[in-house]
Write a structure and sequence with these properties.
alpha/beta; five-stranded mixed sheet; 10 strands; 13 helices; D-Maltodextrin-Binding Protein, domain 2
Length: 314
């Protein structure tokens, strides 16, 4: 066999091996992309099961690659969700209504858990929710915070006009105003409610005590269509993380919680997390209540139904 023929055979074999390797890499990369999700969230307790799933290797166990982008505020999260390659976000039912109303095709794929606590300042002298009439309450307008406040008041037989709502979008500012009695009342999520309680704020009521559940995870419809099986795995991983949280003392993971949420170190030992539930689609009654509230507040100019807000994942 001539040297030229040997060289030709060698080159042909080398080309074949390169093609096979490139195809193999492409298939592997495609597989990775298929199992990949990017989620936007804020440092709040509803994200803890996802943080634990990442930290304890639960996502990896289910063959998932989940990138979590943390935003300082819901506004920053929403802007990124609508303009970037984020697949889904941890948000709430009011936010999903507003997304849909703006023509942003998003649907809920599961519930999450995060409470909202109605607090009175230490200096106010208010000890009971029956004493809130006529007082100022700091909220963020046209959000899940205002929705939760209205529902809490209603369930206690108090009219929404019996309190003076003060718009304070920034949660840290809301906390500071409560601490200095610049407002007598505030509705706060974790971790800010725990910080306020540690400094003497009085707990009057909460969303959870009144069976008000509003936190959800939602994805773009295009992502749901393309990656339904991946989102299903995400839900399964979430449920396993919830099981871990229930079965293990907080001391085993509170350092991760403190680091993620930004609790001050002196909160160690006094952190209270929600009684996390397994994720599922929210009930129609909760969705209907949210839609009706948003309509009453003139936040919607489109007709939205319960089925517009949720996606069945097969």
């Amino acid at each position: 066999m001539s040297n030229k023929l040997i060289i030709k055979i060698f080159c042909a074999s080398l080309c074949f091996l390169i093609i096979v390797a490139v195809c193999g890499c492409s298939k592997e990369k495609s597989h990775i992309d298929e199992e990949h999700l990017k989620i936007g969230l804020t440092p709040a307790v509803d994200a803890i099961p996802y943080i634990i799933a990442q930290d304890k290797g639960i996502f990896k166990k289910y063959g998932l690659r989940v990138d979590m982008e943390v935003f300082k505020s819901a506004g920053e999260r929403d802007a990124a969700f609508q303009s970037s390659n984020i697949d889904g976000v941890l948000c709430d039912m009011v936010a999903v209504c507003l997304y849909r109303n703006a023509g942003f095709k998003v649907k809920i794929t599961g519930v999450t858990d995060g409470d909202f606590i109605l607090l009175a300042s230490k200096q106010s002298g208010i000890k009971s929710i029956k004493e809130v009439k006529g007082h100022q309450v700091a909220i963020s307008e046209n959000t899940i915070i205002e929705y939760a406040l209205d529902k809490i008041l209603n369930k206690n037989g108090i009219g929404i006009n019996d309190v003076k709502k003060v718009a304070v979008p920034s949660i840290p500012v809301r906390l500071e105003m409560l601490q200095h009695n610049k407002v007598q009342l505030a509705l706060l999520p974790e971790p800010f409610s725990s910080m306020a309680i540690k400094q003497g704020a009085v707990v009057l009521d909460s969303a959870y005590k009144n069976n008000i559940y509003s936190n959800v995870i939602a994805f773009k419809e295009s992502t749901i269509k393309e990656k339904a099986s991946v989102i299903k795995k995400l839900n399964e991983a979430y449920n396993e993380s919830v099981k871990y949280l229930k079965e293990n003392p907080i001391e085993e993971y509170q350092d991760q919680v403190i680091k993620f949420i930004g609790y001050p170190e002196d909160m160690k030992g006094s952190i209270v997390l929600p009684d996390y539930r397994k994720t599922e689609l929210p009930g129609n009654s909760e969705l209907k209540s949210t839609i009706e509230w948003a309509e009453k507040e003139n936040l919607l100019n489109k007709k939205i139904t319960e089925n517009d807000l949720k996606a069945e994942i097969e």
